[in-house]
Automatic annotation (TrEMBL):
Residue span, VTT domain: 27-137
Keyword Transmembrane: yes
InterPro entries assigned: DedA_domain, VTT_dom
Membrane-spanning residues: 43-65, 92-112, 118-138
PANTHER family: ALKALINE PHOSPHATASE LIKE PROTEIN, INNER MEMBRANE PROTEIN YQAA
Sorted UniProt keywords: Membrane, Transmembrane, Transmembrane helix
Name of the featured protein: Membrane protein YqaA with SNARE-associated domain
Alphabetical list of Pfam families matching this protein: VTT_dom
Organism of this sequence: Nitrosomonas ureae
Length: 139
Protein backbone atom coordinates (compact mmCIF):
# COMPACT_ATOMS: atom_id res chain seq x y z
CA UNK A 1 0.00 0.00 0.00
CA UNK A 2 1.41 3.41 -0.89
CA UNK A 3 1.59 6.45 1.41
CA UNK A 4 -1.63 8.08 0.19
CA UNK A 5 -3.64 4.87 0.50
CA UNK A 6 -2.18 4.23 3.96
CA UNK A 7 -3.20 7.69 5.14
CA UNK A 8 -6.69 7.27 3.68
CA UNK A 9 -7.05 3.90 5.43
CA UNK A 10 -5.86 5.50 8.67
CA UNK A 11 -8.34 8.36 8.40
CA UNK A 12 -11.20 5.98 7.58
CA UNK A 13 -10.39 3.56 10.39
CA UNK A 14 -9.96 6.46 12.82
CA UNK A 15 -13.35 7.86 11.90
CA UNK A 16 -15.16 4.53 12.09
CA UNK A 17 -13.47 3.55 15.36
CA UNK A 18 -14.90 6.65 17.03
CA UNK A 19 -18.47 5.99 15.98
CA UNK A 20 -20.82 3.54 17.62
CA UNK A 21 -19.37 0.89 15.28
CA UNK A 22 -16.76 -1.42 16.77
CA UNK A 23 -13.17 -1.12 15.65
CA UNK A 24 -9.77 0.16 16.56
CA UNK A 25 -7.50 2.50 14.68
CA UNK A 26 -4.42 2.20 16.86
CA UNK A 27 -3.13 -0.82 14.92
CA UNK A 28 -3.57 1.06 11.64
CA UNK A 29 -1.66 4.04 13.05
CA UNK A 30 1.18 1.79 14.18
CA UNK A 31 1.25 0.10 10.78
CA UNK A 32 1.42 3.40 8.92
CA UNK A 33 4.14 4.74 11.21
CA UNK A 34 6.22 1.59 10.91
CA UNK A 35 5.90 1.55 7.13
CA UNK A 36 6.33 5.31 6.67
CA UNK A 37 8.13 6.88 9.66
CA UNK A 38 8.45 10.17 7.76
CA UNK A 39 4.64 10.52 7.88
CA UNK A 40 4.66 10.83 11.67
CA UNK A 41 2.88 14.19 11.96
CA UNK A 42 0.61 13.70 8.95
CA UNK A 43 -0.54 10.35 10.34
CA UNK A 44 -1.01 11.76 13.83
CA UNK A 45 -3.04 14.71 12.57
CA UNK A 46 -5.19 12.65 10.17
CA UNK A 47 -5.92 10.03 12.83
CA UNK A 48 -6.89 12.78 15.28
CA UNK A 49 -9.14 14.53 12.76
CA UNK A 50 -10.84 11.29 11.71
CA UNK A 51 -11.35 10.13 15.29
CA UNK A 52 -12.59 13.57 16.37
CA UNK A 53 -15.10 13.68 13.52
CA UNK A 54 -16.27 10.22 14.50
CA UNK A 55 -16.72 11.40 18.08
CA UNK A 56 -18.67 14.40 16.88
CA UNK A 57 -20.92 12.11 14.84
CA UNK A 58 -21.77 10.32 18.11
CA UNK A 59 -22.38 13.75 19.66
CA UNK A 60 -24.78 14.50 16.78
CA UNK A 61 -26.59 11.22 17.34
CA UNK A 62 -27.12 12.32 20.92
CA UNK A 63 -28.48 15.67 19.74
CA UNK A 64 -30.99 13.86 17.56
CA UNK A 65 -32.30 11.49 20.24
CA UNK A 66 -35.78 12.63 21.18
CA UNK A 67 -36.29 11.41 24.74
CA UNK A 68 -34.67 9.77 27.74
CA UNK A 69 -36.15 6.32 26.99
CA UNK A 70 -34.54 6.31 23.54
CA UNK A 71 -31.27 7.59 25.01
CA UNK A 72 -31.34 4.85 27.64
CA UNK A 73 -31.68 2.26 24.88
CA UNK A 74 -28.81 3.76 22.81
CA UNK A 75 -26.51 3.89 25.82
CA UNK A 76 -27.03 0.20 26.41
CA UNK A 77 -28.95 0.62 29.63
CA UNK A 78 -26.13 2.46 31.41
CA UNK A 79 -26.89 5.99 32.37
CA UNK A 80 -23.56 6.43 34.18
CA UNK A 81 -22.08 8.29 31.20
CA UNK A 82 -24.98 10.71 31.21
CA UNK A 83 -24.39 11.43 34.88
CA UNK A 84 -20.64 11.90 34.31
CA UNK A 85 -21.31 14.49 31.62
CA UNK A 86 -23.86 16.23 33.84
CA UNK A 87 -21.44 16.27 36.76
CA UNK A 88 -18.17 17.16 34.96
CA UNK A 89 -19.35 18.96 31.83
CA UNK A 90 -17.50 18.86 28.53
CA UNK A 91 -14.03 18.28 30.09
CA UNK A 92 -15.12 14.66 30.65
CA UNK A 93 -14.90 14.32 26.86
CA UNK A 94 -11.13 14.17 27.27
CA UNK A 95 -11.97 10.49 27.91
CA UNK A 96 -13.80 10.11 24.60
CA UNK A 97 -10.90 7.93 23.39
CA UNK A 98 -11.53 5.32 26.09
CA UNK A 99 -12.91 1.95 25.04
CA UNK A 100 -16.52 1.25 26.00
CA UNK A 101 -17.27 4.62 27.59
CA UNK A 102 -15.90 7.09 25.03
CA UNK A 103 -18.69 6.73 22.49
CA UNK A 104 -21.45 6.94 25.07
CA UNK A 105 -19.87 10.02 26.65
CA UNK A 106 -20.10 11.74 23.25
CA UNK A 107 -23.72 10.64 22.79
CA UNK A 108 -24.58 11.82 26.31
CA UNK A 109 -22.92 15.21 25.70
CA UNK A 110 -24.98 15.65 22.56
CA UNK A 111 -28.20 14.66 24.27
CA UNK A 112 -27.50 17.10 27.09
CA UNK A 113 -26.91 19.81 24.48
CA UNK A 114 -23.37 20.51 25.68
CA UNK A 115 -21.74 23.34 23.78
CA UNK A 116 -20.52 21.75 20.56
CA UNK A 117 -17.37 23.87 20.30
CA UNK A 118 -16.23 22.86 23.79
CA UNK A 119 -17.18 19.27 23.02
CA UNK A 120 -15.13 19.40 19.82
CA UNK A 121 -12.15 20.86 21.65
CA UNK A 122 -12.12 18.31 24.48
CA UNK A 123 -12.75 15.38 22.14
CA UNK A 124 -9.90 16.49 19.87
CA UNK A 125 -7.45 17.02 22.74
CA UNK A 126 -8.23 13.62 24.25
CA UNK A 127 -7.97 11.82 20.93
CA UNK A 128 -4.74 13.61 19.98
CA UNK A 129 -3.15 12.77 23.34
CA UNK A 130 -3.91 9.07 22.93
CA UNK A 131 -2.52 8.94 19.38
CA UNK A 132 0.53 11.01 20.37
CA UNK A 133 1.35 8.57 23.18
CA UNK A 134 1.07 5.62 20.79
CA UNK A 135 3.14 7.34 18.09
CA UNK A 136 5.81 8.38 20.58
CA UNK A 137 6.00 4.87 22.02
CA UNK A 138 6.92 3.32 18.67
CA UNK A 139 9.53 5.92 17.67
Amino acid sequence: MDEQSSLLALFTSSFLAATLLPGGSEAVLVGVLLAYPDLHWQALILATIGNTLGGMSSYLIGRLLPDEKTLHKKLGGSMRSLEWVRQHGTPILLLSWAPLIGDVLCVAAGWLRANWLWALLFIAVGKFARYWIIATAIN
